[in-house]
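Researcher: Here's my situation. A collaborator sent me these components and asked whether they could plausibly form a single complex. I don't have experimental data yet, so a predicted model of the whole assembly would be a useful starting point for our discussion.
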Amino acid sequence: MENNQPLWLTFIVAFILMNVLLVGMAYMTWFERKVIAAFQDRLGPTRTGPHGLLQPLADGIKLLGKEDLIPGAADKRVFYFAPLIVFVTAIVGVAVIPFGGVIHLFGQDINLFVTDVNVGALFILAFSSIGVYGIILGAYASANRYSLLGGLRSAAQVVSYEIILGLSLVGIFILSGSLSLRDILARQQDTLSIGGFEISNWYILSQPLAFIIFLIAAVAETNRAPFDLPEAETELVSGFHTEYSAFRFSFYFLGEYISMIVVSLFASTLFLGGTGGPGSGEYWGLGILYLLLKTVLFLFFYVWLRATLPRFRYDQLMGIAWKVLLPLALLNIVITAFIRLYANDQIPSSWWRTIVAILAVVLLAMVYQAYAAGRAERRTAAG
Amino acid sequence: MNEIGSEHFLFLSAALFIIGMMGVLVRRNVLIIFMCVELMVTAANISLVAFGWELDSLSGQSFAIFTIAVAAAEAAVGLAIVVALSRRVKGAVDIDEARSLRD
Amino acid sequence: MPWDLIIFYMVATICVLCAVGVVASNNPVHAAIFLVLSFFNVAAIFVMLGAEFLAVVQVIVYTGAILVLMLFVLMLVDPDDLPEFHAARPVQRYVGVLLGAILLLEVGVAIIDRTVTGIPGTASREAVDVVGGNTQALGRTLYTEYLLPFEIVSLVLTVGVIGAIVLAMPERLGERIANRRGTISLGHPRGTDFALPVGPLEESPIPGSARDEAVMAGPQEFGRELVMVRDAEEQPVVDLRR
């Protein structure tokens, strides 16, 4: 599958990918400002360079030049490296995303990806789990009671939605039989013939519920609107990055954008077939272009949500995670497993009665729970 | 010792276990004691997986997964007890006297 | 160049140093950070041992969830309220280190002079690669050979979750005033409920506010009787005219 290329070649590919990601992150800020401006019927940055394209550069210079304040009571070493955790763990995620197969260039066989770990999908989840520490430690190191609370709330939100993110992907793992992103990509290149049409086996078609859950969880996981209450408190009272100024703050801020980009790449690879598209088999450049287009589609979706929706209150946000999305994700897993067994004719006939009985019980339980929740809501609203 | 063998991993596991044990015996802060217990559990995990690697068996990894799951449940319940104890009684509780969460 | 030996020594050294940092830190948050670093290196060790799935499970579950839970408890609980163990005399520290070193030497000798080995299993590298990788092979083992322990462990986890929720749940609202020390519960059932004349029944984060005095004075200051129940089902109707 992959060739065993010399280590320096992997380093070069990784270096190029990292730089592309960093430039992409910088221009993501420009993209967001322009798109939100378009939604709000104004122009966005126009004066710095043509169409405001040098705006990220200007922002960077400004942020570098600002005074770097550290609260007196802050824990200095933790204060220094907490933002870095968020930044670095976000970038590392791009190492497992396949940008193509093996190509032959300059006389060498080059892999268009940094590595293909057996557990690629979980690798990205693992690093976003570590990113939570950046939030908690940054909140702690600020020596500010409100930052601490804001940070802990934000961390609780991220951890809850991370579970949902993982669970929504289990359906895909059942269907593809592998956790490796290259394998998942390869399985999506299979063509299905439905009716008279030949379409690629993109998992958005076979896992629509998982896709929706994944999207919501991804938006909440990266602390983006409409789930950004802990962060938006920066505007109101506090947030975990209140005490951070200048370049340190930019690490948090840009780390969030990088994780947005990595999650969009991840979603494109898992659900939309990644580098697949007409003609991508022959020309690897087309494959990369398709992947970038799909990623930009997801990023546009992120910005669209931010421009349009009001934010959720914190308890609504957590309620959605645990009471709505978690049961739906579990339901998706059960349905996917069931359909897979059925498609492989592996369900013994004696099971049907048991399955119907279990489904009836589950359905009754869900109906009762909804009814009881409705009654509780009416009581708390009245009492 | 020019090739890596399971002795290296077992020695690491022993070192981590002993360091964790020292922590449990010497420290006073209950949360740090918790962390040292987790360190000991992890050391046992390394030893399980090392033996599984040496003997070409997946039992080591399976039991390590069970260990991690049980350690998670234990940490959750233990921390809940700490929170409950700290909430009900104002001031520090002497852990050897605290027999029931009722008082 | 035995690369794996070099990498092992690097990873193992950092692991042990961080473990010593856990035990020796004064600040519990620093201890937690050292533990995170140590576990991350343990995940690297698992990768070296060919257990990639276990490595990511270690990172996601252990560092990403259990230690986050510990950090939460660390930061939300007033350190004076924590249960305390009997103090250790300072000399115990040095004796402890000495005994630990001796124990380590003994175990080291036992490891090197090992004569008993186990029965080899069937999951060699080639057999694992045939099945499709470490995750697939582990999945097969877990669901065939170790199915019963797997299900029992899931039961243990469920019981653990329920136990943790029950133990850490706040008690009846009326009892809280006496025990409040200013800790703030993220799990407060109503969030910040300003419907009550005095918000949540603890100190407000803003010092010196009128709310603080009202809380500290107790509920008898109000013109009507406040009936506080945790479950509205017990007293669906509150007669406020009394």
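Model: Some features of this prediction you could bring to your collaborator: The interface with chain A takes residues 27, 29-30, 33, 36, 40, 52-53, 55-57, 59-60, 63-65, 68, 71-72, 75-76, 132-136, 184, 186, 190-191, 205, 232, 236, 238 of chain C (CB under 8 Å). Residues 129 and 137 of chain C are 8 Å apart (CA to CA).
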